[in-house]
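step=encode ok
step=design start
structure_in=
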């Protein structure tokens, strides 16, 4: 009897598992790592510093059990709300940027990888930009992805169907999308965020605010597996 070995992804800076769930739905086994306690994370989980953990996996050779590494390092310094509204209003303080050290370790590990960042000025190569409208979701939540050691074609970005519901610059608008961040001003409720992003396993607002919809990484995982099959065909 032939046993099929599922590919395994290392999900760094995993938060509550939005990215990991997409990979799982595409056929991957998933191991997560985050510095915070994440009891809602639905897969095998290591609590600790993600870069220290990755460095240890490289040193011990345990990194070889993975097929792909996904990383969503914090970069509030470069996200759109920090460089836009917050900076113009003098809000916020010093923010951590771990994109460069994350990439350095990912290059050293020798595996193909994905680095995810929100829109803004984060210093990543925008090989992919995904949007909730591509998947019929109730959020826009644009996210950029740098692909290391592999490539795929960019999907078309469809025209948005309207506004994000809520107050912005003193104007209240209605629209087909909800704002899955913050509170007040017409922002989404927790159940609305869960429904809009396809996330059911956590009801923690902070985790939902930081999550990416699983549809994004399911698409990426499928594209990766297709590209790998084409290489070895």
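sequence_out=
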């Amino acid at each position: 009897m032939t046993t099929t070995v599922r590919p395994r992804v290392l999900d760094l800076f995993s938060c509550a598992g939005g990215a990991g769930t997409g990979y799982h739905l595409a056929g991957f086994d998933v191991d997560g790592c985050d510095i915070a306690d994440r009891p809602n994370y639905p897969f095998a989980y290591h609590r600790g510093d993600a870069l220290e953990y990755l460095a240890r996996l490289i040193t011990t050779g345990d990194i070889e059990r993975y097929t792909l590494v996904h990383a969503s390092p914090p970069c509030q310094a470069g996200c759109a709300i920090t460089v836009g509204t917050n900076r113009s209003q003098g809000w916020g303080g010093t923010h951590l940027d771990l994109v460069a050290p994350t990439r350095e370790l990912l290059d050293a590990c020798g595996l193909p990888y994905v680095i995810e960042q929100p829109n803004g000025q984060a210093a990543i190569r925008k090989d992919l930009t995904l949007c909730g409208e591509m998947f019929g979701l109730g959020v826009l939540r644009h996210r950029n992805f740098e692909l290391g050691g592999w490539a795929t074609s960019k999907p078309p970005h469809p025209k948005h169907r309207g506004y994000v519901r809520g107050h912005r610059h003193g104007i209240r608008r209605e629209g087909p999308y909800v704002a899955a961040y913050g509170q007040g001003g017409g922002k989404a409720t927790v159940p609305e965020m869960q429904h809009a992003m396809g996330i059911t396993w956590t009801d923690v607002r902070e985790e939902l605010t930081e999550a990416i919809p699983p549809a994004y990484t399911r698409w990426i995982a499928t594209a990766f597996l297709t590209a790998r099959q084409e290489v070895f065909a």
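step=design ok
step=annotate ok -> The first helix runs from residue 18 to 25.
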